[in-house]
Predict the structure.
Amino acid sequence: MAPPTRVKTLKINNRDVGARQDETILEAAADVGITIPTLCQLDGLSNGGACRLCLVEVKGSSRLYPACVTRVEEGMEVLTNTERLTNYRRMILELLFAERNHICAVCVSNGHCELQTLAQDLGMTHVHFPYRHPHMVVDASHERFVIDHNRCVLCTRCVRVCDEVEGAHTWDVMGRGMDARVITDLSQPWGTSDTCTSCGKCVHVCPTGALFEKGKSVAEMLKKRQFLPYLKLMREERS
Amino acid sequence: MTKVTLATVWLDGCSGCHMSFLDMDERLLDLMEHAELVYSPLVDLKTFPDMVDVTLVEGAVSSEEDLAKIRKVREHTRILVSLGDCAVTGNVPAMRNLFGVAAITERAYQENVDLHPQVPREVIPALLPHCCPVHEVVNVDVFVPGCPPAADTIFFIVSELVAGRRPDLSGLTRFGA
């Protein structure tokens, strides 16, 4: 018999909330309809706390906590939407836009992009930092898919879905800081990968136009993510 | 009642934002009840007036001419509006920054030309090393993303500015819209 589930009570935005002890702040907030902005998080994948958009304030601590990987605690008082947090979130988005070449107007994901939508939702009207305009490559060596590093935000959803759901672990991250890139196998052209099963899961979990299907033009790449919670549910029932 | 003076300038952009401006159609007449278009690629005046209340800028800052023009415009404008993605982000014109001026001029004026390939040194203004958004070179007061911003969006922001209010753009437009 499974051990009894313990319930923790806490406050989120001054609202009393009850949550299972194994839940994260993000999940507990979602349960009561409080949305915290996320980018790297995706239901059905593990959480790495990579993008820092879900940072929240916890009373009694001066540091900020990523809601997707912070477990609820008894008596915790969480604030998800202060001016300080909004400013940080906007800054994170601006840095993402400045770091690579996100030209929404000519992107396959224009109108269906999570980065673009977040910028609009969080009221980011322009980037205060100078754009870096790095020279990035586009790898179209795969038969069906393309990776455009210009649009990559290093959320690692592709890496996680390939490892955790497909079981192939074709994707990984190489390099550090501004030199970090997602790579296939031993940093070789995607089309020459021995491990890629061409399942396309990475393409459909990608929040931006970094991964897309060949033949898609501006604004045509719609991502379909329904498979992920479905697969997760089926596997839970089997085990 | 004196009318609010309005100007538009066109830097490195495709003119799409100006087309969107014209797409306000008959609403332009409503606007002109309260505002006067004193300088624009759409009107005849060749010199920028002494002081303009609201100036809309389309396009990124790409050439020496753009830079001189926007500095002058800023000096003679009360409220400067970056209109559209090129002015706000650099957008498509800034994609040349990935390659550098030499490679771009080589491609445009040498490689793809059959008859007398040559890089122009007169009439066409020299490119700056980097194409950049307007706010990297002068202060900008209002940012309107969009490629181009819809006529409805432009009507809203211009109406608000003409009425002396700062427009709240939340939810109205986005990059690439």
Notes: Chain A is about 25% helix and 15% strand. Chain A touches chain B through 24 residues (CB under 8 Å). Residues 76 and 141 of chain A are 50 Å apart (CA to CA). Residues 7-81 of chain A form a domain with the Ubiquitin-like (UB roll) fold (CATH 3.10.20.740).
